[in-house]
Structure formats: C-alpha cells, structure tokens
Design goal:
This protein is of the alpha/beta class and about 260 residues long. The protein contains 6 helices and 16 strands. Bound molecules: flavin-adenine dinucleotide (FAD) and FE2/S2 (inorganic) cluster. FE2/S2 (inorganic) cluster (FES) binds near residues 221, 223, 226, 229 and 244.
C-alpha cells in the first residue's frame, strides 16, 4: 500500500562533498508497504518543483511509534540540492514505499554489485542477508566512495574498484564480478544497481557464469506510480514496462540492453 505523508528529517550527514545520508521518520510506511530491499521513495523536492525525485531506500526499520528509513543521495540538480539544504527537524513530503525490490531470501547468499549512487540499496540487501553476502562496489575515485565501513560490517567480503585506481582495484566492477564468480559461483544471484552501462556489463558476466542476475534500472520519473509512462523501459520481448511500477528491479534477461 502506497503512503504519502510529511516526514520529519531525523538526521542529515554529508558522506562526502556531494552525498547526503538522511534518516526520515516515515510513520507506518515501512510496516504497511515494505516488500523487500530495493524499493524507493518519491520525495517532493521544493515547492516550485512539480515533480518528485525518486531515491532508493538504503535501509529501513520498523520502529514504534514511527518507522524510520535512511536514504543516500547525491546532489545532481535543483531537486537534490533543495533536499540537501533541508536541516534536521524539518519535514519533507514523501510517497512510498514504491516499486518492487529485489527478490531475495534472508537465508540466501548474494553477490551485491553497486556503482556510485547505486551502492546505497546494496547496503539494505546486505543487512537483509545478515553478513552472508559479498559486495562489489565501484566509484569514480576515492573521494566519491560511500558506505564502505557500513558494508564491511554487513558483508562477508567487500571488494572495491575505482575508475582512476585511487582506491581498491583500478577499473570497473564487472572485472571484479568476473574474478569473484570464477573463484566462487555458489551465489543465489547477482543483484546490481548503478548506471546502465555497468548493469549491462554485470548482467553479461553473470550470464556467462550461469548465475541469475537482477538489476535495478534508473530512468527519469514523473508520477512514480505507473500513470504517466515517463519511466518506460524496453524489454527483450518487445514490451515496455514501467520502471516505477513493474520495477525498478528486473531480471536482467528480460531487459533489452540494445534499446
Ligand atoms: C528508482 C530510482 C532510484 C534512485 N535512487 C537514487 C539514490 O538512492 N540516490 C541518488 O542520489 N539518486 C537516485 N536516483 C537518481 C535521482 O532520482 C536523480 O539524481 C534525481 O532525480 C535528480 O534530480 P535533481 O532535481 O537534483 O536533478 P535534475 O536537475 O532533475 O537532473 C540533474 C542531472 O541528473 C540526471 N537525472 C535526473 N534524474 C535521473 C534519473 N532518474 N536517472 C538518471 N539520471 C537522472 C539528469 O539527466 C541531469 O543530467 C534514483 C533514480 C531512480 C529512478
Ligand atoms: S513515472 Fe509515471 S509511469 Fe512511471
């Protein structure tokens, strides 16, 4: 069940120059609409901005009397800048929890792959599997790295790559996915969130090794609930699906990567 409400900002912390970790008090939103890690909230960013901005749930807790959830976002434009400027104690208008998250079991063991601002929902997946999963995360540079200490606590292993080699392996995450799967194919699935070229490459490697792969797609959004078609994503069978309603998570074999 989708809920829309004013949510108090419990805390706001900068993780680096551009990324904010924000905890929100969301009433009974988690209790009534949580389906699994990988869902998102649609946040109204400013009075003059007509559209909301989709942000993945990083982690969430059912707490009495108010549920809380954490989001992590990077300042990209007017909307995210507005949100980053809100101080703790202020309220924001939040719609959620929206979309379908990753299909996963708490007892499962997953290879979690995140690129840049696609890393936050991977922390929720790691927490859900309580230390059994492995995370492979990539950033443009060391200065852009986020949530590494928290992932270390929640995962069996964390591997890092940076485009410029300033932290971890020099290169892209798909090379680390290949390395990990060639040493250990005993994962229930690869779960990935990040830019589309990264998702395409990770999906290809997972397929080569015969490991199921789910990807969280990022498209620009309007309504966030399946009513406007702004977020259409082309599927291999010729159909078009709504990232907001049918996704954002899809089986990687369903997606038309050449569209
Ligand atoms: C399901 C979903 C989950 C997301 N989760 C997160 C998250 O956890 N953290 C986070 O920082 N961001 C996330 N995003 C992206 C975030 O929604 C955009 O960065 C945000 O909408 C930008 O708004 P703005 O007003 O600041 O920038 P705008 O001025 O609207 O745009 C600034 C730049 O960002 C690009 N952009 C805007 N929206 C998107 C989008 N949806 N996908 C790709 N590029 C976009 C624009 O083309 C432009 O270049 C998510 C997007 C989706 C669809
Ligand atoms: S954002 Fe409107 S249909 Fe998906």
């Amino acid at each position: 069940m989708k809920v829309e409400r004013k949510c108090k900002i419990v805390s706001k912390d900068w993780l680096n120059r551009d990324a904010v970790y924000m905890v929100l008090e969301v009433g009974d939103m988690v209790r009534t609409s949580w389906k699994g890690p990988g869902q998102f909230v649609h946040v109204k960013c400013g009075d003059s901005l007509l559209l909301r901005r989709p942000i993945s749930v990083c982690s969430c807790m059912e707490e009495e009397p108010e549920d809380t959830l954490a989001i992590v976002f990077e300042v990209r434009g007017e909307g995210t800048q507005w949100l980053a400027n809100r101080p703790a104690g202020h309220s924001v208008d939040v719609m959620g929890l929206l979309g379908n998250g990753f299909t996963m079991k708490p007892e499962g063991r997953y290879l979690l792959v995140g690129g840049g601002i696609g890393v936050p929902p991977m922390l929720g997946c790691a927490q859900y599997t309580a230390g059994k999963s492995t995370a492979i995360v990539g950033f443009r540079s060391k200065e852009k790295a986020i949530l590494l200490d928290r992932l270390e606590k929640e995962c069996a292993k964390v591997l890092t790559a940076t485009d410029d080699g300033s932290l971890g392996c020099h290169g892209f995450v798909d090379a680390l996915v290949r390395q990990e799967l060639s040493e250990d194919k005993n994962y229930d699935a690869v779960l990935a969130c990040g830019p589309k070229p990264m998702l395409r490459n990770v999906a290809k490697v997972a397929q080569e090794f015969g490991v199921p792969c789910q990807v969280s797609m990022e498209e620009r959004m309007g309504c966030g609930v399946g009513a406007c078609l702004v977020c259409a994503c082309d599927m291999k069978d010729g159909s078009r699906k709504h990232v907001c309603k049918d996704g954002p998570v899809f089986d990687s074999k369903e997606v038309d990567w050449d569209a």
